[in-house]
């Protein structure tokens, strides 16, 4: 019986070694004993693992976690904010129900309400007596008061340096002569799925909380319409993140900050193992620009999204595959228009960097310095074209510019016909989106319209539609449109 137990103990010892090696990132060779080829014995009861090194291995495992906690807890702070809201006070039943009397000549009485908020932040830089704290833009919002509480209990009044809503990042600063710890920033590009990860912050107000998990996924993008920034990808982790963790640190086994915790996916509002953090490499440029200028400059190209490149659209445009960013409309007097980018083009590379989809395009263009000239590879009419584009600065004015043609078409498939109840309508392309305030919206073109002709030319596919509107871009274009069994002629002037 003793001889039967010995080989089994060796096998269990080896399996345990592999598991612990994987957790600690150590070489498997260190843990693998030499096992002679023997017959497998039947085991009826569990045999406890007894090795000379098991206690040391578990102690090293625990010490690693302790060192991470000791390194990062002091650099993560609690951020309390207060919004002061002023509302008029109704002085009479008449005013409560009907508002101010028309003959009232005095200012209405107002009352102030203090609305508190809570989040976390990371001390990332010091300059003299100034200590800069990185957090989320949605944590500070438009707060009138900001208080930073350190791990040791010290509290400081802070002010906003600047914020970047496009990436949901903000920087606040407080002053102290005391020696305070500063976080070590890691390299989020070096992360791998399966790496250990620790979330540090103040969930639900419980200060200096650290939770452990792994990197569940990289390069996550928020679903359209969920309100989260689309100008960054996200690190997904199952380390517990709850309300109050926003702005806190996601750290690696070295105690380096590799992400800023930002949001969770949950149907209940609590942690379900789906937390998301902004990669720290995406935040480094934001930090520098907020300190230098109080705001972040983003590059602007001046095009509107034409939608996802489906297999049907790729076939209609004679594309080899569905890779790239489809240009639906081009803004007037934009870098794209000046460089010769046209509606219907598919952008596949910028400065040699591959573009797989629209999000890739947004992120790359956003990081291009205004004034820089970049090389764009564009697919047009089944040909590859190289264009030189001088990027401009994104502003509110550029976003409000007029786009041409102001709508996008896609192939009219059986699925679309079924969804829009267009079974009996003839035509090959259908309007998939209309730019708000653009010429098409003003002219009366609607989503779901079938474009049968441009001028006197019949439209047989999406490629032909874009060829026609680009050839006649300096003229008034007349579109023959089918809608709910009726036909219309709609003219658009560029």
Summary tags:
disordered N terminus, 4 domains, six-stranded antiparallel β-barrel, elongated, 34% strand, alpha+beta, Pdz3 Domain, seven-stranded antiparallel beta sheet, 13 helices, Thrombin, subunit H, 494 residues
Instruction: Estimate nothing, just give the exact number of structural domains.
Output: 4
CATH architecture term of the largest domain:
Beta Barrel
User: CATH topology of the largest domain, anyone?
Assistant: Thrombin, subunit H
Q: What is the count of DSSP helices, taking H or I runs of 4+ residues?
A: 13
Strand-residue fraction? 25-35%
Instruction: Please provide the count of β strands.
Output: 27
Query: Percentage of helical residues?
Result: 10-25%
Task: Please tell me how large the radius of gyration is.
Answer: 30 Å
Structural class: alpha+beta
Query: Mean pLDDT, as a whole number?
Result: 83
Largest sheet: 7 strands, antiparallel
């Amino acid at each position: 019986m003793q001889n039967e137990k010995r080989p089994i103990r060796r096998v269990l010892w080896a399996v345990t070694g592999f598991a612990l090696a994987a957790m600690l990132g150590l070489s498997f060779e260190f843990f693998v004993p030499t096992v002679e080829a023997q017959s497998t014995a039947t085991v009826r009861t569990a045999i406890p693992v007894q090795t000379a090194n098991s206690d040391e291995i578990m102690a090293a495992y625990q010490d690693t976690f302790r060192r991470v906690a000791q390194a990062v807890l002091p650099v993560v702070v609690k951020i309390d904010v207060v919004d002061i809201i002023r509302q008029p006070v109704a002085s009479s039943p008449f005013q409560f129900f009907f508002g101010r009397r028309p003959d009232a000549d005095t200012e209405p009485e107002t009352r102030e309400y203090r609305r508190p908020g809570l989040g976390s932040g990371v001390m990332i830089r010091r300059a003299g007596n100034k200590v800069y704290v990185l957090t989320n833009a949605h944590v500070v919002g438009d707060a009138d008061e900001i208080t930073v509480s350190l791990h040791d209990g010290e509290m400081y009044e802070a002010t906003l340096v600047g914020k970047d809503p496009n990436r949901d990042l903000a920087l606040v600063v407080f002053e102290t002569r005391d020696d305070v710890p500063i976080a070590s920033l890691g390299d989020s590009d070096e992360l791998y799925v399966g790496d250990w990860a620790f979330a540090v912050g103040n969930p639900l107000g419980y200060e200096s909380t650290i939770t452990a998990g792994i990197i569940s996924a990289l390069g996550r993008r928020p679903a359209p319409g969920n309100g989260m920034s689309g100008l960054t990808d996200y690190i997904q982790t199952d380390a517990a993140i709850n309300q109050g963790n926003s702005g806190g640190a996601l750290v690696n086994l070295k105690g380096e900050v590799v992400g800023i915790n930002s949001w969770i996916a949950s149907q209940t509002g609590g942690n379900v193992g789906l937390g998301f953090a902004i990669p720290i490499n995406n935040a480094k440029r934001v930090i520098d620009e907020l300190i230098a200028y109080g705001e972040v400059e983003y590059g602007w190209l001046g095009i509107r999204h034409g939608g996802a490149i489906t297999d049907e659209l790729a076939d209609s445009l004679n594309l080899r595959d569905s890779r790239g960013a489809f240009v639906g409309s081009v803004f007037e007097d934009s870098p794209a228009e000046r460089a010769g980018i046209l509606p219907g083009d598919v952008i596949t590379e910028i400065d040699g960097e591959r573009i797989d989809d629209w999000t890739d395009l947004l992120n790359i263009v956003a990081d291009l310095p205004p004034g820089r000239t970049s090389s764009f590879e564009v697919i047009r009419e089944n040909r590859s074209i190289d264009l030189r584009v001088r990027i401009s600065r994104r502003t509110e004015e550029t976003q409000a510019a007029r786009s041409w043609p102001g709508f996008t078409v896609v192939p009219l498939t059986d699925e679309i016909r079924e969804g829009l109840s267009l079974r009996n309508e003839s035509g090959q392309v259908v309007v998939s989106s209309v730019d708000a305030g653009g010429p098409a919206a003003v002219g009366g073109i609607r989503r779901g319209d079938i474009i049968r002709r441009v001028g006197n030319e019949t439209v047989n596919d999406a490629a032909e539609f874009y060829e026609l509107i680009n050839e006649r871009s300096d003229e008034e274009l007349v579109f023959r449109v089918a809608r709910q069994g009726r036909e219309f002629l709609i003219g658009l002037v560029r």
